[in-house]
C-alpha cells in the first residue's frame, strides 16, 4: 500500500538528524511500496541536499550519492488540489507546501510520513493516519 512521503523524512535519509520513527518506517516501506508526494517534493528534497552541501553538512561525494539514491526511490509525484491545500493551510496554520502533503494524504486516503509536528497534528486532525507515532 502506498503512503505520502514528505521531504523532511526523505532528507533524514541523507542527513544526520535526531532519530524519528517515521524515518525508519518509511525507509523500510519504500523498499517494497510506492510513496506518493506532491510535485514540489522533487525540488524540495534536492534543494535540501544542495543547501546541506553549501553548509558543509554533506560533502560533494555525499551529495552525488544522495542524488543517485533519490533517482532510485519509488515516488509517484502528484499535483495537489490547490484550493483544498489552501483551506488546509488556513485551517491549521501550515505553509502551503506542508498543506499540499496533507491534502494528498486526505484525498488519496493514505498514511502520512513526516517529521514535522505541525503537519502531523494537522493530519491527525483531518483523520489522516500517520505511518508511526510522533515524537
Fill in the keyword field for this structure.
135 residues, alpha/beta, Rossmann fold, four-stranded parallel sheet, 7 helices
> C-alpha Rg, in Å?
14 Å
CATH fold topology: Rossmann fold
Topology, number of strands: 4
Our measurement of the CA-to-CA distance between the termini, rounded to an integer number of angstroms, reads: 24 Å
Low-pLDDT runs of 5+ residues are none
User: Biggest sheet: strands side by side, in what order?
Assistant: 3-2-1-4
CATH superfamily, by name, is: 5'-nuclease
CATH architecture: 3-Layer(aba) Sandwich
Principal-axes shape call: globular
What would you note in describing this structure?
The protein has one domain (3-125): 3-Layer(aba) Sandwich (Rossmann fold), CATH 3.40.50. The mean pLDDT is 93. The chain has 7 helices and 4 strands. The protein has helices spanning 7-12, 21-29, 40-54, 60-72, 82-92, 96-108, 117-125, and strands at residues 3-5, 35-38, 75-78, 111-113. Strands 3-2-1-4 form a 4-stranded parallel sheet, sandwiched between helices.
Question: Quick summary of this structure?
Answer:
With 135 residues, this protein is α/β, with parallel strands linked by helices. It contains seven helices and four strands. It has a four-stranded parallel β-sheet, sandwiched between helices.
Amino acid at each position: 500500500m502506498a503512503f505520502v512521503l514528505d521531504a523532511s523524512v526523505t532528507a533524514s535519509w541523507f542527513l544526520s538528524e535526531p532519530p524519528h520513527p517515521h524515518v525508519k518506517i518509511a525507509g523500510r516501506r519504500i523498499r517494497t511500496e510506492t510513496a506518493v508526494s506532491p510535485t514540489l517534493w522533487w525540488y524540495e528534497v534536492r534543494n535540501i541536499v544542495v543547501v546541506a552541501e553549501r553548509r558543509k553538512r554533506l560533502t560533494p561525494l555525499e551529495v552525488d550519492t544522495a542524488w543517485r539514491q533519490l533517482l532510485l526511490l519509488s515516488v509517484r509525484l502528484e499535483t495537489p488540489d490547490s484550493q483544498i491545500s489552501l483551506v488546509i493551510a488556513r485551517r491549521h496554520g501550515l505553509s502551503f507546501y506542508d498543506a499540499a502533503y496533507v491534502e494528498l494524504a486526505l484525498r488519496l486516503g493514505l498514511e502520512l510520513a513526516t517529521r514535522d509536528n505541525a503537519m502531523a497534528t494537522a493530519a491527525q486532525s483531518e483523520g489522516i493516519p500517520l505511518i508511526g507515532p510522533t515524537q
